Amino acid sequence: xxxxxxxxxxxxxxxxxxxxxxxxxxxxxxxxxxxxxxxxxxxxxxxxxxxxxxxxxxxxxxxxxxxxxxxxxxxxxxxxxxxxxxxxxxxxxxxxxxxxxxxxxxxxxxxxxxxxxxxxxxxxxxxxxxxxxxxxxxxxxxxxxxxxxxxxxxxxxxxxxxxxxxxxxxxxxxxxxxxxxxxxxxxxxxxxxxxxxxxxxxxxxxxxxxxxxxxxxxxxxxxxxxxxxxxxxxxxxxxxxxxxxxxxxxxxxxxxxxxxxxxxxxxxxxxxxxxxxxxxxxxxxxxxxxxxxxxxxxxxxxxxxxxxxxxxxxxxxxxxxxxxxxxxxxxxxxxxxxxxxxxxxxxxxxxxxxxxxxxxxxxxxxxxxxxxxxxxxxxxxxxxxxxxxxxxxxxxxxxxxxxxxxxxxxxxxxxxxxxxxxxxx
Amino acid sequence: xxxxxxxxxxxxxxxxxxxxxxxxxxxxxxxxxxxxxxxxxxxxxxxxxxxxxxxxxxxxxxxxxxxxxxxxxxxxxxxxxxxxxxxxxxxxxxxxxxxxxxxxxxxxxxxxxxxxxxxxxxxxxxxxxxxxxxxxxxxxxxxxxxxxxxxxxxxxxxxxxxxx
Lengths: 425, 164
Ligand SMILES: Cc1cc2nc3c(=O)[nH]c(=O)nc-3n(C[C@H](O)[C@H](O)[C@H](O)COP(=O)(O)O)c2cc1C
Ligand code: SF4
Ligand code: FES
Known about the structure:
The complex is a heterodimer. By secondary structure, chain A is an alpha/beta fold. In chain A, 42% of the residues lie in helices and 12% in strands. In chain A, helix 15 (332-346) packs antiparallel against helix 16 (352-365) and helix 16 (352-365) packs antiparallel against helix 17.
């Protein structure tokens, strides 16, 4: 039997089919918070080890192993430190964290309490993008319910451990999704990234050790602790274990969020989980991991397995798991133009290669609007993108350069034609 | 216009003052509460003119210039007057595929206004935004705090004309 989306046995959306599961009482009746209670009887180090063994990789975009990152965190349980959940979800094409939080805020809260106990963080913040107002309210309400039950606050479950959790709303800036930009923002400043090292795990919010994890990473922790690392590895591959949420949008019949084992083929995702292509049109290209990910042509799209290594081997990245599907009617020039405008708008301006590079790329690509573009502009675009990489405080410059160079590699002719077609009337 | 408004008075309502005090307890320093405090002030006042900034500056003991820097950095804090209803129109990749940009331009034309400029009746400000994190609803907008998806220009206009 073919697996279908939102499988009840999977790690993240296993409660999603239960009506009203955003209420603590219903979540708990379905088995929620049981794992948290068990975890308070466990050695925190054993919890960290289990998460490490599971091979869970950070779901915010970079795919760094969560357990390994936790291993860099100070073991001094008394030292003041923070747990920061990244719910900024601003990578274009991504909406999975919103979906998770809307229907089941408690799975995230349970995951955060377990993680806080393992890491001995006394305070946690869920940094949620300003646009997710209703979702922030859902989290506020769920947190209040958890406080009322004594799952948050002082001496949780008689463990002697205190943990306070708060929602912190952003105010509309993509760059606050980058962990150090997020920390600046939480500190009440413009969300400008800071140079790494030091990494936040060593020196983060207010100069103190801060563990930053994505919503989906933290929400996977209760399942891993309930069923064990070995069970989690039944899905996916050696290097990409577990299940993953994908946000699919664009030219498919049923856009939305699905949970599938890593390494599911993109073909199955499009044809089975998303009901195939809209209007029966032919597939032309797919952006497989958010706007920063280099685009795939149809052939690669139909061949790729959605795990970290296969997507990388084909020259792109799994990123946040945002899949944008484009059919034969789409012009790649438009897609690149929209992408370039976005990065230029969102560059925080601290680094010259990023500020100037994103601006220049956008301007160059829009010369057609004045009728002054040449075919060779595409080469200049390629060189400009190339010169931006690895030169800056944060990875936004790379995130702008990669899809640009990727697009040129796959659709050069179409771009050349696009820029030389004047739009001037 | 700005000059006239700087003479106006602002202070948190009694209820918001309570919320303000509660917000401070959530953080280990005062400045960390700045974003939530600005959200609160903007909810009460609609936008964040100089006299509101001064008030917050005195209240939190943060220099006004630092607060203005923050307001300027974030797209959802307004240092210009805005309409009673804020409408975000997404013009990022997926929404643009389904006409998001044409909808934005069409709305500007219909309401005879520009980016963030309030309509003459003060009812609406339109703001073009990057991906709103709801691409499955493309083309999508946010009307005040709610997502409205799968719109076209006609349904968008209809929806906005209903706003108070
Ligand atoms: C420009 C930029 C934007 C990012 N946006 C997000 C985001 O919206 N959400 C997120 O979880 N991580 C985002 N990240 C990654 C974070 O910096 C960080 O690696 C992540 O939150 C760590 O959590 P994880 O290990 O669970 O993935 C972004 C990174 C960059 C460079
Ligand atoms: S790379 Fe760009 S976004 Fe990142 S810190 Fe530098 S200027 Fe800011
Ligand atoms: S592209 Fe419009 S909501 Fe994501």
